[in-house]
Task: inverse folding
C-alpha cells in the first residue's frame, strides 16, 4: 500500500550523557491524518548500535504502521520503557510529556512542542 505524506518530523530524547534513547517520528499525511512513531533504545527496539539514524528508521516504521492500519499499536513493555524514559526525563518534559503507551499512534493528542514542529517550514 502506498501512502503519500507531506511532512515527517523527528525529535530525539537524550540521556544525561547526551546519548539518543528515544526517537519520535511525526507524519502528517496528505489527507491531514497525523501519526506518531516512537522508538526506544535498548532492549526494546535495539537502535543503540546505529545511534540516532537507526532510531529514526524504527520510529518511521512505527509511524507508517499507524498510518496504514489507522490505529494505535505495539504496546510498550512497561519495565523497559519506564527505565529509558527516566533516563531522558529532562528532554521528555521539554517536549510535553506525551502519554507513552504504544510505539505507533494514530491521531495522537499532540503536545505544544509537536504542534510547533509540524507547523514549521521544511528547510532544504
Result:
Amino acid at each position: 500500500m502506498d501512502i503519500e505524506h507531506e511532512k515527517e518530523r523527528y525529535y530525539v530524547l537524550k540521556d544525561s550523557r547526551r546519548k539518543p534513547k528515544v526517537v519520535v517520528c511525526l507524519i502528517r499525511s496528505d489527507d491531514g491524518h497525523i501519526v506518531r512513531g516512537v522508538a526506544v533504545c535498548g532492549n526494546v527496539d535495539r537502535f543503540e548500535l546505529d545511534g540516532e539514524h537507526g532510531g529514526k528508521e524504527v520510529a518511521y516504521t512505527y509511524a507508517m504502521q499507524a498510518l496504514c492500519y489507522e490505529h494505535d499499536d505495539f504496546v510498550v513493555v512497561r519495565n523497559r520503557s519506564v527505565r529509558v524514559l527516566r533516563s531522558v526525563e529532562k528532554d521528555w518534559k521539554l517536549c510535553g510529556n506525551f502519554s507513552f503507551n504504544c510505539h505507533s499512534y494514530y491521531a495522537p493528542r499532540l503536545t505544544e512542542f509537536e504542534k510547533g514542529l509540524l507547523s514549521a517550514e521544511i528547510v532544504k
Helices lie at 51-69, 78-87, 89-94, 112-119. The beta strands are 5-14, 20-29, 34-40, 73-75, 102-106. Residues 51-69 form the longest helix (19 residues).
